[in-house]
Design brief:
alpha+beta, Helix Hairpins, three-stranded antiparallel beta sheet, 5 helices, 3 strands
């Protein structure tokens, strides 16, 4: 089930990522970061979703959502021809579906995704800076 079906979306407003709840016409906005995104997903699950699907179900759901992203990319930017039925697919919405399920998995496994992401950026910056700058294929 896509994010649009959940009546929850994350949008960009004036360069700031905002959390917009759109339930019965009510809209609340606040600055969005990964921590707040995890909380927004948890709040949504508690209000609309009854409970989290188990981790294995969410892993299968993540695989399905990544497949939908891959289909759009392969047909719109790759060498496959795009079918008429694919032309109205929204890549942003599909990427948001991936993000939603990743946030679910982080929540239900106790991962502080903002902390983990910042740690990973530091690791990649130290490990990959010189390697990428010296890569002749990237010039």
């Amino acid at each position: 089930m896509g994010i649009a079906n959940y009546h929850h979306r994350i949008e960009i407003h004036s360069g700031t990522l905002c959390n917009c709840f759109n339930n019965f016409g009510a809209i609340k906005e606040k600055e969005m970061n990964i921590h707040n995104a995890q909380k927004a997903v948890d709040d949504w699950i508690k209000e609309h979703g009854v409970r989290y699907f188990n981790e294995l179900t969410n892993m299968a759901q993540l695989t399905e959502e990544v497949g939908e992203v891959a289909r759009i990319i392969a047909r719109r930017y790759g060498e496959q021809s795009e079918k008429d039925s694919d032309k109205d697919k929204d890549l942003g919405e599909e990427l948001a579906d991936v993000m939603f399920v990743v946030l679910c998995l982080a929540n239900q496994t106790g991962v502080d995704l903002e902390k983990a992401f910042n740690k990973k950026l530091d690791i990649k910056a130290k490990r990959d800076h010189d390697r990428h700058h010296k890569n002749k294929k990237l010039k």
